[in-house]
Amino acid sequence: MSARAGRLGIGIIGAGHVGPILGAALAGAGHAIIGISAVSDESRDRAEAILPSAPILDIPVIVERSELVILAVPDAELPALVEGLAATSSWRAGQLVLHTAAGFGTAVLAPAQALGAIPLAIHPAMDFTGTSIDIGRLGETWFAVTAPVPVQPIGQALVVEMGGEPVIVAENDRAAYAEAIEIATAFSRSIVAQATGILSEIGVEHPGGFLSSLVRSSVDNALRETSRPESIEPLDGEDF
């Protein structure tokens, strides 16, 4: 089975920073957005701005109508959501169920899988703003894909259709993966906040803009260094 075999009817549960963006990317690849759930006024506004043609529907209706259900909810809410929908026999055989939580693999989708649903855990390694700018950033983003081996090509195809690069992460490695994501995100925010605070105290206007080029180039250089083969030693007099 391949996500490229035809257009999927996609339902999105959660209109936070991630769900509408992934929905927009998949809609751009030719899939149909059946509906999206949104509770707060802020999430409704976000859904309407990013997916203006997608109706805002109740969760059971979305699950009933969708071939692919994207669960873009906070990690803490995911287990209860999956179990609750299983308790009402909402999941269907052959239906794709995809969650975006970094800290979970597909085990959390076991209640849906028991009813015949096909589980996928796909996490984009990106700090989302929840605005349309994120759609363009997907093209430079790696996605962690966790799924049973026969299902991995589906997850990889969906990532490619969203413009990203897929990398397989084993079920047992999801906790370590989530830790790495949290460290990178929290550290970056903490350091930037500390540095901009110091600049503000000494009277530098717009400290975020002042540090933008420095922070981006420093991070790029650090990432480039981690990708450098250890076997390559710089020649005397050369500065890589």
Structure description:
The protein is of the alpha/beta class. The chain has two domains: about 5-170, Rossmann fold; about 175-225. About 45% of the residues lie in helices and about 15% in strands. It is built from nine helices and seven strands; from the N terminus they run E-H-E-H-H-E-H-E-H-E-H-E-H-E-H-H. The longest helix has 28 residues, at about 175-200. The protein is globular, with a radius of gyration of 20 Å. The relative contact order is 0.11. Mean pLDDT is about 90; it is low at about 230-240.
Return the CATH architecture of the largest domain: 3-Layer(aba) Sandwich
CATH class of the largest domain: Alpha Beta
| Low-pLDDT stretches | 231-240
CATH superfamily caption of the largest domain: NAD(P)-binding Rossmann-like Domain
What's the total number of strands?
7
Name the helicity range.
Answer: 40-55%
Count of individual domains: 2
CA-to-CA gap between the ends?
A: 45 Å
Content of β-strand: 5-15%
CATH-assigned fold name of the largest domain: Rossmann fold
Number of helices: 9
Computed CA radius of gyration, to the nearest angstrom: 20 Å
Structural class: alpha/beta
Mean pLDDT: 89
Helix and strand succession? EHEHHEHEHEHEHEHH
- State the strand order across the main sheet: 2-1-3-4-5-6-7
- Main sheet overview: 7 strands, mixed
Question: What keyword list fits this structure?
Answer:
single chain; 240 residues; alpha/beta; Rossmann fold; 2 domains; seven-stranded mixed beta sheet
Write the layout of secondary structure elements.
Blueprint: E1 9-13, H1 19-28, E2 32-37, H2 41-50, H3 59-65, E3 68-71, H4 78-87, E4 96-99, H5 110-113, E5 118-124, H6 133-137, E6 142-146, H7 152-161, E7 165-168, H8 174-201, H9 207-227
Parallel strand pairs: 1-2, 1-3, 3-4, 4-5, 6-7
Antiparallel strand pairs: 5-6
Helix pairs in contact: 8-9
